[in-house]
Amino acid sequence: MFPPVSSASLHELLPALRLLLPTEAEGNEGLDRSGVFVARGDDGTLRGAILAQVIAGGLGIIGPPRAESIDQTDELVRIATDWLRGRGVKVCQAFSSGGGTRLMEPLARHGFNHVTQLVSLRCPIGGETADCSVEFHAVRPPFTEACRSVLLATHERTLDCPELNRGRTPDELLADFTELAPGTTWHFAWRDKLPLGVMILSPAATEYEVELAYLGVVPDYRGGGLGENLLTAARLEATRRGANALSVSVDIRNWPALQLYRRCGFLETDRRDVWLAHFA
Description:
Blueprint: E1 5-7, H1 10-20, E2 36-40, E3 46-55, E4 59-62, E5 66-67, H2 70-86, E6 91-96, H3 105-108, E7 113-124, E8 135-139, H4 145-153, H5 170-178, E9 185-191, E10 194-203, E11 209-217, H6 226-240, E12 245-251, H7 255-263, E13 267-278
Parallel strand pairs: 4-6, 11-12
Antiparallel strand pairs: 1-2, 2-3, 3-4, 3-5, 6-13, 7-12, 7-13, 8-9, 9-10, 10-11
C-alpha cells in the first residue's frame, strides 16, 4: 500500500518537479529532495506535488501545491509545513504572480497571508565613473563585530518586508547575509572610520548581469545620499565584473528605495505577490 502523501522517491522526483516547475525542472540539481512531497492515487501513480525548502536564518520557502483534489492539496501543505517546522523554520515565504491568487488558496487555509508585492527592476550599466563620498571595503564572512553591528542596524525600521524579521534571532538575521550563492561579494561603506551601510552583490540568472542582493543604510544616515553612493559603488563593481546590467528586487512599500532606483535608471521588469506564515 502506497502512502497517500510522503516525500518523493528518487524515481518520482523529476515527474513531481515537472508538475510544479514545468519550465525549470531540469535545472534544480541543488534541491533538497526531502522537501519534495507527492500525493499518490490508490494505484501508486503520482496525483500531486508540493515543493518546500529550508533557507538560512530560520527561513523557508514553499510553492503552491498541484493536485487533483482539495483534500490532496491540504494534505500536501500540512505535510510540507510540518517538515519545515521540524527543521527550525520560523518564517516561511511563498510567491505568486500573474493572477496566481487562486493557486495560493491551499496555503491561505494553512496560515499564509498576503503581505506585499516584490518589484523586480533592472538597469543597463557601462561607462560608470567613481563619484562616491565614502570609502568601501570588501569583506568576507566571518564578519567583525563592527560589520555585524552595521548589518543588524540596517534592519531597524526597514521597509523591506519587515515581517520576515519577526521572531528571528540576531544570528538568524545575519545568516541571511553569509550563506549566499558562490560569487557573492560584501562591500561595507565607511566614513570617518565609521561603518554606515552595506551593499551585497550576487550572480544573477544571466551571465552578464549582477544582482544587487542587498543595500542597507543604518538609520541615522538614511536620507542623506548614502544610498545613492552605495548604488553607484554597486554599478561600478558590476561593471568591473564585466556585467552589462544590474538587477534588484524591492518591497513595493519601500517607497524611498523605489524612488532611488527609478531616479538612477532602473525599470520595472516583474512583480510578485509575497505570502508569509509564521511558525514561531
